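Anyone opening a protein record will find just a pair of labelled lines. With that in mind, the following record should read easily:
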Amino acid sequence: MRQLHCPKCRTATFFELGQCSTCETLLAFNWKLFAFEALKSAVPCANRTLIGCNWSVDDGHPFCHSCRLTRTIPNLGSNRNVMLWKRVETAKRRLVYDLTRLDLPLAIPSGPQISFDILSDETAGFPIMTGHLAGLITLNLAEADDAERESRRVAFREPYRTLLGHFRHEVGHFYWEVLVGQTSLKSAFQLIFGYESRSYEAALNDYHQRTERSYDREAFISEYATSHPWEDWAETFAHFLHIVATLDSAAALPLSLDERSRRTLEDPYMEADFEALLASWSPVAYSINELNRSMGLNDAYPFRLTPAVRGKLHFVHMAILHFRQPTEPGPDATEAPQTAEE
């Protein structure tokens, strides 16, 4: 996240805030300008009062460009659900920021668009599975509960599990269709990730029934990536977003950088040189892990980028660059009606 500032006093301000911590100016994030503006000069999202959405609207729609992608909201009959939904939407706004900075579409022409169902086990009466289908991302509201998410992280032996991580992974499935599935890159994908024609359902069933949990750490970024080529792609796509977003944050830090690193950090989302991206990422990842350890915390990025994993990340980067070629105008997101979970 590029450093943001209060429009009145110029204090550095976190992306999630709705009020300047120094001069107390009420803030609204302008999605098109990537900057805060004073709320008195903006039209706030209709969700500002309910869940603290700090984005503005500019086209007459009541919801901001992030909130309007939510098709189904959780049952708001409890304060806990409202609190958890607020956390979900806060993470989702970072995802929408990522995708916008990458210049990726939120919809496929004459096809699906990205939308979200935020559902709860209690209302549904059965366990909600977080997942993706034809652009629709379903998220279990319980993932916004820190204790519940940590319990699942330990149970599934995952080194990393966050709301934002879920969103970046699930949206990767949508972008497989956009960047790979209907393009000339499909054959290259199959050489690198494997053949996606294998039954997806059968592959996931096999994965969850495994008793032996070891896997080839040289070839895969995570254990879940071994389940199916589509999951390997989604995990890798999520890690690419982790990298460029964190480098974008690092750009504002007082770092000692050489000329090439400074050029990379001008806009990591649009950097065309993959090796330059990774050259900048390695010291940043090491630094944030050391800082976490000095505070008694786990590593912020507990992953090792082996040559095979670097190759997969390179393919994701190449697919994004390939999409950006000016062959035809990119699609805009259409509107998803917002309804409540019943």
Notes: The chain has two domains: 1-62, 65-340. DSSP finds eleven helices and eleven strands in the chain. Residues 65-340 form one domain.
